[in-house]
Amino acid sequence: MSRLDVDIKYLKGVGPKRAEMLNKQLGIRTFRDLLFHFPTRYVDRSVTHTIAEIRSMSEVPAIQLKGHFVTLNLQGEGARRRLTGLFSDGTGTVEVVWFRRVKALHDSFLTGTTYILFGKPTLFNGRLNFVHPEIDKEQAAGAMKGLHGIYPLTETLRNNGFSSKTFFTLAQAVLAAVPDIHETLSPDIIARNRLMSLNDALNAIHNPQSPDQLQRARFRLKFEELFYLQLKIQHYTRRRNSSTKGFVFPRIGHYFNTFYSQCLPFPLTGAQKRVIREIRADMATGRQMNRLLQGDVGSGKTLVALLCALIALDNNHQACIMAPTEILAAQHFDTFSAMLSPIGVNVKLLTGSTRKKERDTIHSQLLDGSLHILIGTHAVIEDNVEFQNLGFVVIDEQHRFGVAQRAKMWRKNATPPHVLVMTATPIPRTLAMTVYGDLSVSVIDELPPGRKPVQTLLRYENNRYDVDCAIGRELRQGRQVYIVFPLITENEKLDLKSLEEGYERVCDTFPHYRVAYVHGRMKPAEKDYQMELFASHQADILVATTVIEVGVNVPNATTMVIENAERFGLSQLHQLRGRVGRGADQSYCILMTKHQIARETRRRLELMTATTDGFEIAEADLQMRGPGDIEGTMQSGIALNLHIASLASDGQITQIARENVDFILDNDPELASPDHRVLVKQMQQLFDQSFDWSNIS
Ligand code: ADP
Ligand code: MG
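Above: inputs. Below: predicted complex with adenosine-5'-diphosphate.
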């Protein structure tokens, strides 16, 4: 056991009561936990601002002022007792307030003495106001010069006297108690990347001597986190690749060739051809394919899936296509059967609403091999669905399915089928390294020719009349229109009300047109019926919530109005917008918002009007939203547990970490060299005690 594993209550200055609080509030249990509770930002206390200056600053961080108290007054009684003061530095005055320990503070401050005040000002009743600032005598403040960490704290901790200063002091106590912290990276990695030692980095992160030193410390600590994450993912992937045999599909035969030369409805784009080559090569190696196909909405992923399924057929295997919704599954079924029946391919659809008789036919045809391609929803992974020889599986719109479901498809055979997962949610490449770290990635980065990019417009409530006129013009030309309302799950009643009101307003405004209506809480049959009305052009307008987000293809729909667009995330807006612009006509996406929106929100929406590039949008979304819900999308199921690195903004370090991992595993795949012992040990410590590295036992 390392000294870092000692219970925090034994640290000088902590004790059982504070230990329990740290544990409850921040999950800090050991010396190590405390040492890895890093500042999230730093302030430079060598700089002193003037009050006149901060009045002209638009956003004020925590700053330092130098001056004296003009007045200091104890006010109120009991719980409402507070200490207020006016602090002046000759260029102006600010208000200062304390709500706790007011008596002691009042006794310790003197009017007229020069103090250094440190804190983050807020605007209250039009006046600059500091609540609970730190106050130091001028001489004592001399020791405060330089960079000071601001530690993340909870309100409860703050109310119990914890401050950034407390954490700084406690971290120093740990560093004093454990003077030489063991290195956790191997010497070759440290040398190759010119990294600071762990010991130096931990000292510097809590008490940086210069911005440059802080930078190097942060790099070292981020690198380490991302390195071990990549090592874990690559270890898992390499082991899976070497231990699972896959089918070998060497042939391109009758089905593929006939379809390609006689039935292809349009020439493939260069990108489609390239990814088909990649997939084909992958399926011929004898390893099981696990490939992610990323392609923006409308880039033609379905046709790629279809052609690859034909390769499986040519090699005497069956294929299965799984989609997240009944609507989408039905649409794929229509596409596949229309294109493939002429060349004698048997395609069938299996969903939750498939009737018993059809279900029985499907089951027996799957077993005797006469059913070539099965398309469906989750229903296809049920245990009673058995194939004669399933060789290729496509999972469409992967982000809707979990890891477990993917794995379930593998277990359908003794030899697992090749798996292609498709997604229209583009994520930056360095992020894909982690989220989809165990998959190979193919990208369709080209749209079919002749597409006109969707024109996106930002409009406000007071432009409503013009927007209605524009919709009317499209409808008169025989085009169809989507009108999308947001759905906020916290208040279903309110949502439904806004959707229903919207629906009525649309019916009133366009009395001569037929309006269909879908939302997520409808019964599937009702939803399908309404969608079908729109898809078959028996309805001109579809009023909907985001249920239409995924995959639906109605090329005659040229306009989408998104109500309360400010409530949607960028990636979601992009997905929605992908429903229009699917035909040859110019399409429009109108983002409606109320007039007053925050500057940040306006920036987000303006980005939507400026670009239709899914990757650019995904990158921006990630920067703005942060990687908050990335963990939920982690495909490998590995817990992230990052203290300092960010998948959103540390893409470059991820890349460097990955290169290091590849280099090490290429040269020492079993991590057998004595140098690399430390890596194995650290992996066990980080991920689980029973971590199994094949040759270590
Ligand atoms: P997504 O990648 O979003 O799933 P789809 O596969 O639904 O996109 O394709 C969108 C539309 O583009 C479909 O109507 C499809 O028929 C058409 N399409 C696909 N490939 C091509 C191509 N090479 N040339 C022209 N149109 C194409
Ligand atoms: Mg699709």
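The mean pLDDT is 86.
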